[in-house]
C-alpha cells in the first residue's frame, strides 16, 4: 500500500527560484526509503514541502501533488500534516533548546497517551531517560538527534521524515541510531523517508533509494542494486574503479539523468 | 541606484561622467524643467491655504529625508525624531529669546545642537540593534522633551516661546510666498545632499552596514564610524528642520513634539516606501495632506455634524487605519505603487520586468 | 511607611501592565505597542458594562473581562495573524497603528472627558489603613491581583501543557508547528492573556482614580519596566517594576515631582548602557532582532 506519493512536484522560493522540479517518489507501508544527494540537491526542500512550509521562507509547491494515504497534503500547514501522521525531524534546530528533555516530549500534541508514549520512547532511547531534566540546548549532538527523533515519535507518526540523520555525528552514534530506526520500523510499523548525505549509511539502512541532483531525481532503485551500480559507487560511495573519471565521462549516468529529468 | 526602464533601449552611457549624471536624456531635461517651472509658478497662482500646505510639505520632507537616510538606508531604527526636531526648535527659541540671536546664528547653532544630540542618540547603536535601538531612541526622545519642558517652566514660558520672524540682511522673512521659496530651497538642498551622500562612499557604507554588519566589518568598513555618521548627519538635518519649524510657526512649545509626531515621521517613510528618497517625499506629502483630505471627505458625507466636532479624533483613527492598510496590503509603500504603475505603462504589452533588473 | 506602600502600589501597576508586553514578546518577538490603548479599551468596556448592568457591579466587571479577552483574540486574528511572515519591525508598527486607531475610535465614542466607572457602578473606594500608611481599596485589590496573576502565570508557563507550548513556540515556531502545535492558537492565547491582564490593570486603575484619555501614558512608562527586567522574563518584569517604582517614588518625593514621567526612561537608558538585555533576559534576544 502506498503511504506517501509525491508526483512531479515543483517547489518555488520567493516566486522566482525553482528549488526542485519534477520530483516523483513514493513510500509504501513499513518501508525505509533513502533520498541521496550532495549539498544543494533539493533534498531538504523536498522533505519540507511534504511536511509543510510555514510561509517564513516564501516557498510554495507550485506544481504536482503530494498525497498521503490517498489524500492531498501539499501546501498544508506543518501542524496539519503532523496531525495526519507525517512528522518531520529537521536538520537544524531540531529540539527546543530552553525546554528540558521531558518537556520536549510533552509539548507536542496527543495528551491522552503521554505516559505511554514516554515509556515507548525511553524503550528505544534509554539514554534519554537519564537526561530527563537536562535542557535541550545542552545536549550533545547524538543525544540531540535522539531527542529529536523521540519527540517526533511522541506525535504518533505513520511516516517519519528524517533530514540528515548522520550530520555531525560520530560513526558509532550513527550506527546506534540506524539500528534504532530499523527497530522502530519493525516494532512500530512506521515508514521512514530518510535524507542522507552519507550514502553508505543510507544504503545500509534503507530498502529503496532515490538519488537527487540539482533539484531532480536522477536515479532510483533497490538499495542492493544501487550499491552495485557503478556510478553510485564512484560518485557517492567513493569506490573508484580504474582511472579517475569526471561526470562528463559518465555516459550512462547522463543517459539515465535525461531519462528521469 | 538603478536606472529605470525608459532609458533602457538605444541609450548607452559611454563614460563615467555620463553614468553619474542625474539627468541624462533630453526627455528628462524637459521633464525636469517643466517640473521646476511648475514649482516656481505655484506661489503666484495658489491660495494662501495651498501655500501653507506646500510649506508644510517641504518642511516635513526635510525631516522625512533625514529619517529615510537613517532608517531606510543605514538601517538604524530611530523613534526619537520628534525629540531632534524639538531640539532644533528649542535651540532656536532659546537663542532668539535669551540673546536675541539673528537667523544666521540660530540656524548653524541648531544644526550643531542636532549634531551633538545625534552623537548621543547614536551611541546606543554601537551596542544595540533593531528593537532595542528603537527603544533607546524613544527613551532619549522623552528625556529631551522633559528637558525642554523643564526649560519652559523654569523660565516662565509655560505657554511656549514666541519668536519673531527671522531677518536676513535687513529683509524680514514673512508672507506665504517668501516662506514657500525658502522652504523649497531648503528641501531641495536636503534632497540633493542626500542624493549625493548616497552616491558617495559613505552612502555605500550605510547600505553595507544595513545589509550585513559582520560582512561590512570584514570588508573594512568601520561600523561604529558610519553608524555614528548616519546619526549625526540625519540629526543635523532634522535640527535644521526644527529651526525652520520654529520660525515658521513663530512659536515653540513642548506639546507640539509628542510621540505622535515621531510616529508620523516613521509613517512617512513606511507609507512612502522604505529605502527610497522618492518614497520619503511621497510619504511626507501623503501624511501632511492626509488630515485635510479627511476633513474635506467628511464634508461629502451626510450627518457629519457630530463627527466634525471631533475632527482630531477622526484624523487620529483614520491615520491609524491607513497605516495598518499600508502595512498589510502594500509593504513597499507609495513608491511600490508608483513603480507598478510605471511598469504597467512602460512594459505594456509585457507584464514582468526582465529578471536581470528585477526589484523586489 | 507611606512611601513603601506607594512604591508597592506603583510597582504592582507597572508589573501588571508589563507582563502583557513580556508575554507577547516571548511568544512572537513582537512588541505590542498598542498595549496601553488596549488597556484603556478595557477600562472603557467596564464603563460601558457599568451603564448596562447598573446595579450589579460583579456582573459588569465579569462581562467587561470577558469582552476584553474577546478583543485580544480578535486583534490577533484580524491584524496580527497577517503580519506573521513580515519583519518584526512591520509588526511592531502595525501595533502602533492599531493603538492610534483604537484611541481615535474611543475618543469618538466616549469623548475625552474624565470618567469614573466607580460612580457608575456605585461602588465605593474606602481608604484602608496599615499602621501609618493609607491605601485605597482598589489599589489594594490591584496589588493582590498582580501577585495572583504572576503566580498563576509562573505555574501556567512552567507546568501547564499550553504554557509549555507557548514557550516552545516562542523559541522555535517552525519546529513547534512541525510537532503539531497549532501556532495560531498559541499566539491567540498569548494575545488573549495579555489583553486580559492589561484590561484588568486598566479597569482597576479606573475604578481607583478615574480614567482619561491619557491612560496609555502609563503603559508607555511601564514599557521600560519590561525592558529593564528582560523582555522575555516575567520575573524580570516584577523586579524591574520594583526598581523603577522605587526610583520614581523616591525621586519625586525627595527631588522633583516633575521627574515622574521621565524616570522610567532614565533607568532604561542606564540599563541599556550597562546590560542591554535586561536583568533576566536571555542574551541572544539582542541579536535575533
Describe this structure in words.
Chain A is an alpha/beta fold and 261 residues long. Helix content of chain A is 37%, strand content 26%. In chain A, the strands form 2 sheets. In chain A, strands 6-7-8-3-9-10 form a 6-stranded mixed sheet, sandwiched between helices. A 4-stranded antiparallel sheet of chain A has the order 2-1-4-5, covered by helices on one side. Chain A is globular. With 360 residues, chain B is an all-alpha fold. Chain B has a domain of 213 residues. Chain B contains 15 helices and 4 strands. In chain B, strands 1-4 form a two-stranded antiparallel ribbon. In chain B, a hairpin with a 2-residue loop joins strand 2 and strand 3. Chain C has a two-stranded antiparallel ribbon with strand order 1-2. Chain C has one domain: ABC transporter involved in vitamin B12 uptake, BtuC. Chain C starts with a helix and ends with a helix. Chain C is globular. The interface between A and C is medium-sized, with 31 and 21 residues.
Order of helices and strands of chain C: HHHHHEEHHHHHHHH
Q: Which structural class should the secondary elements of chain B be placed in?
A: mainly alpha
CATH class category of chain C: Mainly Alpha
In angstroms, what separates the terminal alpha carbons of chain B? 14 Å
Low-confidence stretches of chain B: 356-360
* Percentage of residues in strands of chain B: under 5%
For the record, give the distance between the C-alpha atoms at the N and C termini of chain C, rounded to a whole number.
43 Å
Enumerate the strands of the largest sheet of chain C in spatial order, edge to edge or round the barrel. Answer: 1-2
| Residues in β-strands, percent of chain C | under 5%
Strand order of the largest sheet of chain B: 1-4
State the helix count of chain C.
Answer: 13
Mean pLDDT of chain B: 84
Please compute the radius of gyration of chain B using only Cα atoms.
21 Å
Largest sheet of chain C: 2 strands, antiparallel
Descriptive key words:
heterotrimer, B: 360 residues, mainly alpha, two-stranded antiparallel sheet, 2% strand, globular, disordered C terminus, C: 289 residues, ABC transporter involved in vitamin B12 uptake, BtuC, 3% strand
Amino acid at each position: 500500500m502506498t503511504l506517501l506519493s509525491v508526483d512531479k512536484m515543483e517547489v518555488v522560493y520567493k516566486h522566482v527560484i525553482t528549488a526542485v522540479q519534477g520530483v516523483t517518489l513514493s513510500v509504501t507501508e513499513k518501508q525505509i526509503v533513502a533520498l541521496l544527494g550532495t549539498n544543494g540537491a533539493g533534498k531538504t526542500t523536498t522533505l519540507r514541502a511534504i511536511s509543510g512550509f510555514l510561509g517564513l521562507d516564501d516557498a510554495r509547491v507550485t506544481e504536482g501533488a503530494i498525497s498521503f494515504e490517498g489524500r492531498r497534503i501539499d501546501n498544508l500547514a506543518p501542524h496539519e500534516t503532523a496531525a495526519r501522521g507525517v512528522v518531520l525531524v529537521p536538520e537544524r534546530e531540531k529540539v527546543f533548546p530552553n525546554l528540558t528533555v521531558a518537556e520536549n516530549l510533552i509539548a507536542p500534541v496527543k495528551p491522552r497517551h503521554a505516559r505511554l508514549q514516554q515509556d515507548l520512547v525511553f524503550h528505544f532511547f534509554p539514554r534519554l531517560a537519564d537526561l530527563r531534566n537536562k535542557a535541550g540546548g545542552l545536549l550533545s549532538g547524538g543525544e540531540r538527534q535522539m531527542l529529536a527523533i523521540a519527540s517526533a515519535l511522541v506525535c504518533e507518526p505513520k511516516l517519519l521524515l528524517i533530514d540528515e540523520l548522520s550530520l555531525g555525528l560520530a560513526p558509532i552514534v550513527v550506527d546506534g541510531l540506524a539500528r534504532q530506526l530499523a527497530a522502530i520500523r519493525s516494532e512500530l510499523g512506521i515508514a521512514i523517508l530518510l535524507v542522507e548525505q552519507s550514502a553508505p549509511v543510507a544504503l545500509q539502512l534503507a530498502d529503496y533509494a532515490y538519488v537527487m541532483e540539482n533539484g531532480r531525481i536522477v536515479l532510483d532503485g533497490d538499495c542492493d542494486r544501487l550499491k552495485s551500480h557503478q556510478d553510485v559507487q564512484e560518485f557517492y560511495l567513493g569506490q573508484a574503479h580504474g582511472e579517475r573519471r569526471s561526470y562528463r565521462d559518465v555516459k550512462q549516468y547522463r543517459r539515465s539523468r535525461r531519462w528521469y529529468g | 541606484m538603478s536606472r529605470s526602464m525608459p532609458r533602457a533601449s538605444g541609450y548607452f552611457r559611454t563614460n563615467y561622467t555620463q553614468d553619474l549624471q542625474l539627468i541624462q536624456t533630453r526627455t528628462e531635461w524637459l521633464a525636469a524643467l517643466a517640473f521646476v517651472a511648475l514649482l516656481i509658478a505655484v506661489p503666484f497662482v495658489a491660495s494662501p491655504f495651498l501655500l501653507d500646505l506646500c510649506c508644510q510639505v517641504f518642511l516635513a520632507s526635510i525631516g522625512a529625508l533625514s529619517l529615510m537616510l537613517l532608517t531606510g538606508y543605514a538601517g538604524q531604527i530611530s523613534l526619537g525624531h520628534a525629540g531632534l526636531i524639538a531640539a532644533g526648535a528649542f535651540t532656536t527659541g532659546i537663542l532668539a529669546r535669551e540673546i536675541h540671536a539673528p537667523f544666521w546664528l540660530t540656524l548653524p547653532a541648531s544644526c550643531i545642537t542636532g549634531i551633538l544630540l545625534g552623537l548621543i542618540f547614536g551611541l546606543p547603536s554601537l551596542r544595540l540593534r533593531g528593537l532595542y535601538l528603537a527603544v533607546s531612541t524613544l527613551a532619549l526622545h522623552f528625556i529631551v522633551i522633559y528637558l525642554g519642558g523643564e526649560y519652559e517652566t523654569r523660565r516662565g514660558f509655560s505657554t511656549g516661546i514666541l519668536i519673531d520672524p527671522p531677518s536676513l540682511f535687513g529683509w524680514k522673512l514673512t508672507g506665504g510666498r517668501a516662506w514657500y521659496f525658502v522652504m523649497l530651497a531648503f528641501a531641495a538642498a536636503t534632497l540633493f545632499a542626500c542624493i549625493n551622500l548616497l552616491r558617495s562612499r559613505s552612502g555605500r557604507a550605510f547600505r553595507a552596514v544595513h545589509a550585513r554588519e559582520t560582512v561590512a566589518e570584514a570588508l573594512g568598513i568601520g561600523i561604529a564610524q558610519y553608524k555614528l555618521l548616519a546619526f549625526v548627519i540625519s540629526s543635523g538635518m532634522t535640527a535644521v528642520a526644527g529651526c525652520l519649524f520654529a520660525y515658521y510657526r513663530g512659536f515653540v512649545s513642548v506639546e507640539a513634539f509628542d510621540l505622535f509626531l515621531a510616529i508620523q515621521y516613521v509613517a512617512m517613510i513606511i507609507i512612502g516606501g522604505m529605502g527610497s528618497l522618492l518614497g520619503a517625499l511621497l510619504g511626507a506629502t501623503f501624511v501632511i495632506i492626509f488630515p485635510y483630505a479627511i476633513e474635506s471627505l467628511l464634508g461629502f458625507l451626510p450627518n457629519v455634524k457630530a463627527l466634525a466636532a471631533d475632527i482630531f479624533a477622526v484624523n487620529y483613527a483614520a491615520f491609524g487605519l491607513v497605516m495598518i492598510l499600508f502595512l498589510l496590503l502594500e509593504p513597499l509603500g507609495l513608491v511600490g505603487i508608483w513603480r507598478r504603475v510605471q511598469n504597467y505603462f512602460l512594459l505594456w504589452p509585457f507584464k514582468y520586468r526582465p529578471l536581470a533588473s528585477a526589484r523586489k | 511607611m507611606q512611601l513603601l506602600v506607594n512604591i508597592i502600589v506603583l510597582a504592582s501597576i507597572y508589573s501588571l501592565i508589563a507582563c502583557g508586553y513580556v508575554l507577547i514578546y516571548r511568544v512572537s518577538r513582537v512588541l505590542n505597542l498598542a498595549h496601553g490603548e488596549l488597556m484603556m479599551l478595557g477600562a472603557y468596556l467596564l464603563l460601558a458594562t457599568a451603564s448596562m448592568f447598573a446595579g450589579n457591579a460583579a456582573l459588569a466587571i465579569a462581562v467587561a473581562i470577558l469582552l476584553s479577552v474577546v478583543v485580544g483574540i480578535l486583534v490577533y486574528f484580524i491584524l496580527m495573524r497577517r503580519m506573521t511572515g513580515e519583519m518584526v519591525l512591520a509588526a511592531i508598527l502595525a501595533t502602533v497603528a492599531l493603538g492610534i486607531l483604537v484611541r481615535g475610535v474611543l475618543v469618538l465614542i466616549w469623548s475625552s472627558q474624565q470618567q469614573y466607572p466607580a460612580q457608575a457602578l456605585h461602588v465605593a473606594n474606602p481608604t484602608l489603613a496599615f499602621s501609618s500608611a493609607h491605601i485605597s481599596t482598589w489599589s489594594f485589590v490591584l496589588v493582590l491581583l498582580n501577585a495572583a496573576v504572576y503566580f498563576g502565570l509562573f505555574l501556567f508557563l512552567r507546568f501547564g501543557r499550553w504554557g509549555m507550548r507557548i514557550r516552545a513556540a516562542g523559541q522555535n515556531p517552525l519546529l513547534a508547528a512541525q510537532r503539531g502545535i497549532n501556532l495560531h492558537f498559541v499566539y491567540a492565547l498569548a494575545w488573549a492573556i495579555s489583553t486580559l491582564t492589561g484590561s484588568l490593570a486598566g479597569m482597576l486603575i479606573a475604578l481607583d482614580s478615574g480614567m482619561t484619555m491619557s491612560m496609555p501614558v502609563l503603559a508607555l512608562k511601564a514599557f521600560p519596566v519590561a525592558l529593564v527586567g528582560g523582555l522575555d522574563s516575567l520575573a524580570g518584569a516584577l523586579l524591574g517594576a520594583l526598581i523603577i517604582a522605587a526610583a520614581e517614588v523616591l525621586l519625586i518625593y525627595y527631588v522633583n515631582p516633575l521627574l515622574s514621567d521621565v524616570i522610567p526612561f532614565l533607568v532604561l537608558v542606564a540599563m541599556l548602557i550597562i546590560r542591554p538585555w535586561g536583568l533576566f533576559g536571555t542574551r541572544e534576544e539582542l541579536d535575533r532582532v
